[in-house]
Protein: ABC transporter ATP-binding protein
Organism: Nocardiopsis endophytica
Amino acid sequence: MPIPPNRDAAVDVDGLNFAYGRYQAVKDVSLKALRGEVFALLGTNGAGKTTSLELIQGYRRPDAGHIRVLGLDPFRQRRSLRRRTGFMLQEAGFLTEMTVRETIELWDSISGRRDSVDRVMDRVDLAGRADVRLDQLSGGEKRRLDIALAVWGGPELVVLDEPTTGLDPESRRRLWSLVDDLRAAGTTIILTTHYLEEAEALADRLAIMHEGRVAVSGTLREVLEAHPATISARLPSSLADDLPALSGSTTVAAPGGADDSDTRALRVETSALQADLTVLLEWADRRGVPLSGLHAQPATLESLFHTIRTRSERLTAEAMEAADQGAQDTQGAHGTDGDGARSGDGGGDGSEDGGDGRQGAGHGAENDVEGVSAR
Ligand SMILES: Nc1ncnc2c1ncn2[C@@H]1O[C@H](COP(=O)(O)OP(=O)(O)OP(=O)(O)O)[C@@H](O)[C@H]1O
């Protein structure tokens, strides 16, 4: 069923699903990046970020769900989007015997967008490398060339997949300022990153993916305020069972390290940081308990990652336990062969590009040599 174009959203994704063969890499993903904002897609390794970007770019056909990019269907209308969008993928490659300048000039004719080679090289700090062959560029320089091609011609939407991976601090800072300039000019930017401080510095809105799903999304403030703060400290083992009642969830565990047998690591996840901290400090004061390494802080993206990962591990453990229990209950009635329902990273692709299909240009739908840099 066609969905009406959403004028306010540059990218509008709803209920997206995609499987590589039997391996479900993207599960019911919904996202919205508004025009003129920076949207950061974060997540654990293998969470499905790149696959989601490839779906947004029209390189793959979704198994289910809807995607609108600048009001169009990226899979069916990729040609129409070509001039309006600039994409960059991880580890994009080029014809290695070409120079930086030749590559950008080639891009001028392929992309259908117009720009100045010198201006763009300057923007990504490649001005001094114009005549260098691609196979002589460093990893960071190649990355900057990928970025140059993505922003070439000032597209309305720029998609950057891990743009600062492998960049030195100065180049990273320059990229951040380029992103700020693009946003100021009204460009919508979607980027993936493993650097949380990058998302904090740049993103108007973000989503964190884990195991194919969006675990949280919103503005940075919304996302952090919706998650508990953390109190951590060490306390003498003898008092671990004597803690006061706190509203947050409390865990007490043996700390790592060799000589800590007399202490326990206390961790409290709480939505009432001030109240719980007060109770804890008054208790420690009354009992004369030293709370060494006391640390209290509101949720951060890092603590949020920790929460998402541990929650998921706990659910997986519970599910496995339930499955074991179920198997025991039915033992005797059925055979014992495991069926291997989940096939891991399943070779067989099932998507129309067959095999890999994630290699930028020339894949997917109508198969213009578009996309990011050819690889
Ligand atoms: N061509 C493919 N065939 C089969 N499985 C694939 C293919 N590409 C990716 N996958 C699997 O799909 C899952 C999602 O991969 P994806 O690259 O989208 O994750 P990601 O979030 O970008 O990961 P990372 O942060 O590690 O780059 C992973 O488990 C990956 O192994």
Notes: The two ends are 35 Å apart (CA to CA). Residues 47 and 211 are 5 Å apart (CA to CA). The pocket of adenosine-5'-triphosphate is lined by residues 20, 23, 25, 43, 45-51, 345-346, 349, 356, 358 (CB under 6 Å).
